[in-house]
Design a protein that fits this description.
Layout (H helix, E strand, L loop, with lengths): L2 E5 L4 H12 L3 E8 L13 H16 L3 E5 L1 H17 L6 H20 L4 E3 L4 E8 L2 E8 L16 H5 L1 E2 L7 H10 L21 H6 L7 E5 L9 H5 L13 E6 L22 E7 L4 E6 L7 E8 L3 E3 L12 E6 L7 E8 L2 E11 L6 E6 L2 E7 L2
Parallel strand pairs: 1-2, 1-4, 2-3, 4-7, 8-11
Antiparallel strand pairs: 5-6, 6-18, 8-9, 10-11, 12-16, 13-18, 14-15, 14-17, 15-16, 17-18
Helix pairs in contact: 1-2, 1-6, 3-4
Length: 386
């Protein structure tokens, strides 16, 4: 009998994943990861990790499987939190969910599972995998979940072949409504529980709240850049691969903010500046000068670019056998954020890294975030946006 350790988060998806595996005859062990124990930082009044771990324990009791809590809080702070603060401090916007999967769930969690004798780990992600033989070698294919509205393959864009070979995705072929229906039929306490909207593996805390307890407020100028600025001539936008470079002399000061490191490109909420015909959006940040640049309206040209770059050291191939050759443009479908509709692009590899050209200009390309690229419904690789 094969042993599989399921990462029970206290949510409905991982609960149903554990049930399915037990039904298939696996020896299932439930494991809850505690990733935060710093009481000096206010996360939420009702201690969500305790609530979640109790829900996970109840699921294990209902299913009749062993359960334990493991503390990764030290490693989480070192690998995720410190990295996030460093990125925000430097004016970049990391993705905590992708980082958590890369550094915690598919690294530390997997190693711990193997340590206790597991053959596999399993998660409640809406994605699939397929093992194929190519030129005599076993290749793991990471595929999008069948529920296109919940597909979470993007969050796994940094996993590798070994990690995939040791991972099962029991609900990848299911629709979310089917998962909830099954949970209700078997009497799981998590059947109606809402999906978590907080910081990955910590709970209900909102990221801005979390950031403000580590990165000190620092008053700075808010500068509006008019959409008719000459830098936005069509040729400048359609050949744009890097963020626009702004200076305060290009626009007018319209208010103050409490720290450029709190804001990200494309953001609308949190400025608290009114009196304009159209909503204000962040189109650029300068953490060195502590200035944020804004533009009116979601069609402001400062929000759009038709390309991006990825540094050589930040390229990751899930399918290493499909790495592209230098100066050989290759067409993929791509996304630069979760739930974004896949969009065609051409990717070229050169001595510096990757150059990505989109078929249609993209809104809110953000340094520090991840781009992932696909062939049909298979995720081929990913990279950190420069």
């Amino acid at each position: 009998m094969k042993t599989v350790v399921v990462g029970l988060s206290g949510g409905v998806d991982s609960s149903v994943a554990a049930y399915i595996l037990k039904n298939k005859g696996y020896n299932v062990i439930g494991l809850f990861m505690r990733n935060w124990n710093d009481e000096s930082v206010i996360i939420d009044d009702d201690c969500p990790w305790i609530e979640d771990s109790n829900d996970a324990l109840q699921v294990a009791e209902i299913l009749g499987i062993p359960f334990q809590v493991i503390d990764f809080s030290k490693e989480y702070k070192e690998r995720i939190v410190d990295y996030m603060f460093s990125e925000y401090k430097n004016g970049r916007t990391p993705n905590p969910d992708i980082l958590c999967n890369r550094e915690i769930k598919f690294d530390l969690f997997l190693k711990k599972a193997i340590e206790i004798g597991a053959d596999f780990v399993a998660t409640g992600h809406y994605c699939r995998k397929e093992e194929v033989i190519i030129n005599g070698n076993k290749i793991q294919r990471l595929l999008a979940g069948k529920d296109t509205t919940k597909d979470q393959s993007y969050f796994l864009c940094q996993v590798n072949q070994f990690q995939l070979s040791k991972t099962l995705f029991p609900i990848g072929d299911m629709q979310k409504k089917e998962v909830r229906k099954l949970a209700k039929e078997i009497g799981l306490n998590t059947a109606e529980k809402k999906d978590s909207q907080g910081l990955c593996f910590i709970g209900k805390v909102k990221l801005p709240t979390f950031l403000q307890q580590f990165l000190k407020p620092k008053t700075g100028k808010v500068v509006e850049i008019d959409s008719n600025n000459s830098m936005y001539h069509k040729e400048n936008i359609t050949n744009k691969f890097e963020s626009f470079k702004y200076s305060s002399s290009m626009g007018k000061v319209i208010g103050q903010h409490n720290g450029a490191h709190y804001y990200t490109i494309g953001q609308r909420k949190g400025l608290n500046i009114g009196g304009f015909p159209l909503p204000l959006f962040i189109i650029g940040t300068d953490v060195m000068e502590n200035i944020i640049y804004v533009g009116q309206g979601e069609d402001h040209p400062g929000l759009y670019r038709n390309g991006l770059t990825v540094k050589k050291e930040n390229i990751h191939w899930i399918r290493e056998d499909l790495k592209i050759d230098i100066d050989t443009p290759t067409v993929y479908d791509s996304r630069i954020r979760y739930r974004q509709k896949l969009t065609p692009c051409s990717i070229t590899y050169n001595e510096f890294g990757l150059k990505v050209s989109f078929k249609e200009i993209q809104r809110g390309i953000t340094p520090g975030q991840f781009i992932s690229w696909y062939k049909n419904d298979e995720l081929i690789g990913s990279g950190i946006i420069n």
